[in-house]
Amino acid sequence: MLPAGDAAHIHSPMGGQGLNLGLQDAHNLGWKLAARIEGRASDELLDTYHAERHPVAARVLANTRAQAVLLVPDEENLALRDIVEEPLTVPDANKVVAGMISGLDIRYALPGPPHPLLGRYLPGLDLRAGRGLLLSGSERLRAAAAPWSAWVGYEVTGRELGAEAVLVRPDGYVGWTGSDAAPLADTLSRWAGPPAGNR
């Protein structure tokens, strides 16, 4: 069983975080279920759903509990609220809390060399086809990804990404960054199954 949304986590509605959390659960799970149902991926891919989403839900539960405590109008909590409000006037502190409440600061622990984008959501991409996207100007890497062309599209981007290539999963999260074809092929195999012709 793979529960998502309110079936997986129930907490205070503080900040409307449950709706965002449930939608991201569904987006994370949907492409993985599709890959499994189509026979492209193993159950190991489905295991990544719990590994990636459970920590996010646990953190939302913790922060909505904390926010609920701050609303209790007794003397101690009012004093605590005053202390918490002051740091939130600092832009950097405000940004941290806003990222946590919005879910925009989520970073999945994914394998690969450290990179600021790895495991993070990359906004502004057209992923409506339910496919991943390789962002790169490299024909060599495009050729390495070609056997998975049913699963991943290719886009030459003018964005400054800090890597020769960035592989974005169908849920918008960066699954790989780099410049070498072999690790790209390994990542595509892990997320999308064996290349076409080897199934």
TrEMBL record:
Entry keyword Plastid: no
Positions of transmembrane segments: none
InterPro entries: FAD-bd, FAD/NAD-bd_sf, RIFMO-like
Keywords on record: FAD, Flavoprotein
Reported cofactor(s): FAD
Signal peptide range in chain numbering: none
Pfam families, per database record: FAD_binding_3, Rng_hyd_C
FAD-binding domain ranges (all copies): 4-63
Entry keyword Flavoprotein: yes
This protein's name: FAD-binding domain-containing protein
